[in-house]
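User: I need a structural model of C-CAP/cofactor C-like domain-containing protein from Jatropha curcas for a docking pre-check later this week. Nothing fancy, just the predicted structure tokens so I can convert them on my end. Input:
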Amino acid sequence: MEEETTTAPPTPVATDISNSTKALDPTLQKKHQAMLDRLSIRHQTRSKSSSSTTDSTASFLSKFSDFKRSIEFQLAESSKLASTDPTRLKSHLVNISNSISSLEQLVAENSYFLPSYELRSSLKTVAELKLSLENLHSELVPKKKFSFKNKSTSKTPISEPKENEIAKPETPKPIFTIKDSPGIRNKVNEILTKNFRGSEIGEFTISDLDSCEVRLIGCIGALFVNRLRNCKVYAGPVIGSILIEEVENSIFVLASHQIRIHYARESDFYLRVRSRPIIEDCGGVRFAPYCLSYEGIEEDLKEAGLEEETGNWSNVDDFKWLRAVQSPNWSVLEVSERLEGVEIKDGSENGRS
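Assistant: Understood. Predicted structure tokens for C-CAP/cofactor C-like domain-containing protein:
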């Protein structure tokens, strides 16, 4: 007897989806597919970025550990050297100091991708090594004895310094290298707008601006900001990190998973951030919650994983202030002084303060 073959009818769910898809207007189908493709690319980008960050962190921790052990060995050798060859002790301690400075620079150069815990732990280790060196120096290097010296009867007149001899303030050493990425650079007194919605943008750089207003609409992978004066920067969500350096008298409205700020002076930051904001070598900086709006921002925030307000905008870590009391370098912006909201468009911006 031949077996009777039957074909199972399509399930209601499959039928509904099929009918729904056929019912869609061709234009809507294209838009729907484009959105799915964009979400897929964002997911892949996040996965690659996460893998790259993990590898970079592991490499840094290995280098940091080797460097730390070398310095600890040098510190341990100091006491032996003081008893066997005291003439070399001073140069030996100078070498240790230089090694600690190099270790601190290693941390600074890699701070962009390091998780907050690893960065905080590394800086604490550097501070402890500095303290150990100071204690050794006080213990091993004898203080000079006080003695009276005959003063010379002839005095050399002190001349006024020439104009070209006047010392200038030292320019801070950059913490990070400006990326050769798409960006806005070298502008004065301009309104600059970029709309990234519907496109994929990885890293974006804003640098060397004076008295400018920058409006960034849509999602960005990572944002680098360097050397801004008297500027306003309004940006949609950043999927990765934001790194800011050498800014003065400016306003920033930013949303990101991680934000680090170096050498900022007299500037306000309106933030939405997943982790605690980090500041270093800053002064007079104030913080408030994110207050930006534009058409489609809710969708962008959701895609970037920043749809929820965490309250971390006010949980600021000052890595140059290790005491238990509040750092004097930053404060929460008074409600009466905050912007009520900033709305941006491609051609116009309406801010209410």
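Before docking, keep this in mind: The radius of gyration is 28 Å.
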